[in-house]
Amino acid sequence: MIFQFFPFHGLLRLLVAVLALALSASVSAALYKSVGPDGRVTYSDKPPMTAKESEKTEKMRDVPPAGDPNAAKRLTEQQADFQKRTLDRQASEQKAADEQKAKADLMRRCQDARTAVRQYRDTGMTLYRAGEKEGERVAMDMETRLKEAARVEADMKEAGCE
Known about the structure:
The protein has helices spanning 9-27, 51-55, 71-122, 142-159, and strands spanning 31-35, 41-44, 57-60, 128-130, 137-139. It is mainly alpha-helical. A three-stranded antiparallel β-sheet has the order 2-1-3. Strands 4-5 form a two-stranded antiparallel ribbon. A hairpin with a 5-residue loop joins strand 1 (31-35) and strand 2. Helix 3 (71-122) packs antiparallel against helix 4.
Protein backbone atom coordinates (compact mmCIF):
# COMPACT_ATOMS: atom_id res chain seq x y z
CA MET A 1 0.00 0.00 0.00
CA ILE A 2 0.97 3.59 -0.44
CA PHE A 3 0.81 4.23 3.31
CA GLN A 4 3.82 1.98 3.87
CA PHE A 5 6.16 4.54 2.29
CA PHE A 6 5.26 7.30 4.70
CA PRO A 7 6.33 7.21 8.36
CA PHE A 8 3.17 9.06 9.40
CA HIS A 9 0.77 6.53 7.85
CA GLY A 10 -1.05 5.99 11.15
CA LEU A 11 -1.73 9.73 11.47
CA LEU A 12 -2.88 9.90 7.85
CA ARG A 13 -5.29 6.99 8.34
CA LEU A 14 -6.71 8.69 11.42
CA LEU A 15 -7.16 11.97 9.52
CA VAL A 16 -8.98 10.22 6.67
CA ALA A 17 -11.29 8.41 9.14
CA VAL A 18 -12.16 11.63 10.99
CA LEU A 19 -12.83 13.43 7.71
CA ALA A 20 -15.12 10.62 6.52
CA LEU A 21 -17.09 10.70 9.80
CA ALA A 22 -17.47 14.47 9.65
CA LEU A 23 -18.77 14.36 6.10
CA SER A 24 -21.21 11.53 6.79
CA ALA A 25 -22.68 13.35 9.79
CA SER A 26 -23.42 16.49 7.78
CA VAL A 27 -24.90 14.55 4.86
CA SER A 28 -27.32 12.55 7.00
CA ALA A 29 -28.92 15.66 8.55
CA ALA A 30 -32.55 16.05 7.53
CA LEU A 31 -35.32 18.47 8.30
CA TYR A 32 -39.01 17.61 8.33
CA LYS A 33 -41.88 20.05 8.03
CA SER A 34 -45.20 18.91 9.54
CA VAL A 35 -48.59 20.60 9.56
CA GLY A 36 -50.65 19.70 12.60
CA PRO A 37 -54.46 19.31 12.71
CA ASP A 38 -54.75 22.87 14.02
CA GLY A 39 -52.73 24.20 11.06
CA ARG A 40 -49.62 24.79 13.08
CA VAL A 41 -46.35 24.21 11.17
CA THR A 42 -43.60 22.35 12.98
CA TYR A 43 -40.00 21.81 11.84
CA SER A 44 -38.05 18.87 13.26
CA ASP A 45 -35.04 16.69 12.52
CA LYS A 46 -37.18 13.58 13.15
CA PRO A 47 -40.30 12.45 11.30
CA PRO A 48 -43.57 12.78 13.26
CA MET A 49 -44.79 9.84 15.31
CA THR A 50 -48.53 10.03 14.57
CA ALA A 51 -50.07 8.80 11.33
CA LYS A 52 -52.22 11.92 10.84
CA GLU A 53 -49.22 14.23 10.94
CA SER A 54 -47.19 12.00 8.64
CA GLU A 55 -49.76 12.52 5.87
CA LYS A 56 -48.99 16.24 5.87
CA THR A 57 -45.23 15.95 6.33
CA GLU A 58 -42.64 16.79 3.75
CA LYS A 59 -38.92 16.26 3.91
CA MET A 60 -37.13 19.48 3.11
CA ARG A 61 -33.96 19.48 1.01
CA ASP A 62 -31.89 22.05 2.84
CA VAL A 63 -31.32 22.23 6.56
CA PRO A 64 -31.27 25.69 8.10
CA PRO A 65 -28.48 26.41 10.56
CA ALA A 66 -29.28 25.61 14.20
CA GLY A 67 -30.20 28.54 16.41
CA ASP A 68 -31.74 30.68 13.63
CA PRO A 69 -35.55 30.52 13.87
CA ASN A 70 -36.05 32.52 10.63
CA ALA A 71 -33.68 30.41 8.54
CA ALA A 72 -36.39 28.31 6.86
CA LYS A 73 -38.39 31.42 5.92
CA ARG A 74 -35.26 33.13 4.61
CA LEU A 75 -34.33 30.02 2.63
CA THR A 76 -37.78 29.96 1.01
CA GLU A 77 -37.49 33.66 0.16
CA GLN A 78 -34.04 33.11 -1.33
CA GLN A 79 -35.33 30.27 -3.50
CA ALA A 80 -38.27 32.39 -4.71
CA ASP A 81 -35.92 35.30 -5.43
CA PHE A 82 -33.59 33.00 -7.37
CA GLN A 83 -36.49 31.67 -9.45
CA LYS A 84 -37.67 35.22 -10.17
CA ARG A 85 -34.19 36.30 -11.27
CA THR A 86 -33.91 33.21 -13.49
CA LEU A 87 -37.27 33.91 -15.15
CA ASP A 88 -36.40 37.60 -15.59
CA ARG A 89 -33.05 36.70 -17.17
CA GLN A 90 -34.70 34.22 -19.55
CA ALA A 91 -37.31 36.80 -20.54
CA SER A 92 -34.67 39.47 -21.21
CA GLU A 93 -32.58 37.00 -23.24
CA GLN A 94 -35.65 36.08 -25.31
CA LYS A 95 -36.48 39.75 -25.84
CA ALA A 96 -32.91 40.49 -26.96
CA ALA A 97 -32.98 37.52 -29.36
CA ASP A 98 -36.31 38.68 -30.82
CA GLU A 99 -34.98 42.23 -31.28
CA GLN A 100 -31.84 40.93 -32.95
CA LYS A 101 -33.90 38.74 -35.29
CA ALA A 102 -36.16 41.68 -36.19
CA LYS A 103 -33.13 43.89 -36.86
CA ALA A 104 -31.55 41.23 -39.10
CA ASP A 105 -34.86 40.80 -40.96
CA LEU A 106 -35.13 44.58 -41.53
CA MET A 107 -31.54 44.71 -42.80
CA ARG A 108 -32.27 41.88 -45.25
CA ARG A 109 -35.46 43.57 -46.50
CA CYS A 110 -33.65 46.90 -46.90
CA GLN A 111 -30.86 45.25 -48.88
CA ASP A 112 -33.43 43.54 -51.14
CA ALA A 113 -35.18 46.91 -51.69
CA ARG A 114 -31.88 48.64 -52.57
CA THR A 115 -31.18 45.92 -55.11
CA ALA A 116 -34.65 46.35 -56.63
CA VAL A 117 -34.19 50.16 -56.91
CA ARG A 118 -30.84 49.67 -58.67
CA GLN A 119 -32.44 47.22 -61.08
CA TYR A 120 -35.30 49.60 -61.87
CA ARG A 121 -33.03 52.62 -62.44
CA ASP A 122 -29.57 51.52 -63.50
CA THR A 123 -29.73 48.33 -65.53
CA GLY A 124 -30.04 48.38 -69.28
CA MET A 125 -31.83 45.06 -69.12
CA THR A 126 -35.47 44.74 -70.06
CA LEU A 127 -37.60 44.17 -66.98
CA TYR A 128 -40.99 42.49 -67.08
CA ARG A 129 -44.09 42.56 -64.93
CA ALA A 130 -47.07 40.23 -64.83
CA GLY A 131 -49.71 41.01 -67.44
CA GLU A 132 -53.49 40.87 -67.33
CA LYS A 133 -53.69 37.31 -68.59
CA GLU A 134 -52.32 34.35 -66.70
CA GLY A 135 -48.67 33.73 -67.57
CA GLU A 136 -48.41 36.92 -69.62
CA ARG A 137 -45.25 39.04 -69.28
CA VAL A 138 -45.28 42.72 -70.19
CA ALA A 139 -42.06 44.71 -70.68
CA MET A 140 -41.77 47.74 -68.39
CA ASP A 141 -41.03 51.09 -70.04
CA MET A 142 -38.65 53.58 -68.38
CA GLU A 143 -41.49 55.68 -66.89
CA THR A 144 -43.02 52.62 -65.17
CA ARG A 145 -39.60 51.55 -63.91
CA LEU A 146 -38.94 54.99 -62.37
CA LYS A 147 -42.39 55.03 -60.72
CA GLU A 148 -41.74 51.54 -59.27
CA ALA A 149 -38.29 52.66 -58.01
CA ALA A 150 -39.88 55.69 -56.30
CA ARG A 151 -42.54 53.47 -54.69
CA VAL A 152 -39.87 51.06 -53.35
CA GLU A 153 -37.81 53.99 -52.00
CA ALA A 154 -40.89 55.38 -50.21
CA ASP A 155 -41.48 51.92 -48.68
CA MET A 156 -37.84 51.81 -47.58
CA LYS A 157 -38.10 55.22 -45.91
CA GLU A 158 -41.31 54.19 -44.13
CA ALA A 159 -39.69 50.95 -42.92
CA GLY A 160 -36.70 52.84 -41.52
CA CYS A 161 -34.05 51.81 -44.02
CA GLU A 162 -31.10 54.17 -44.18
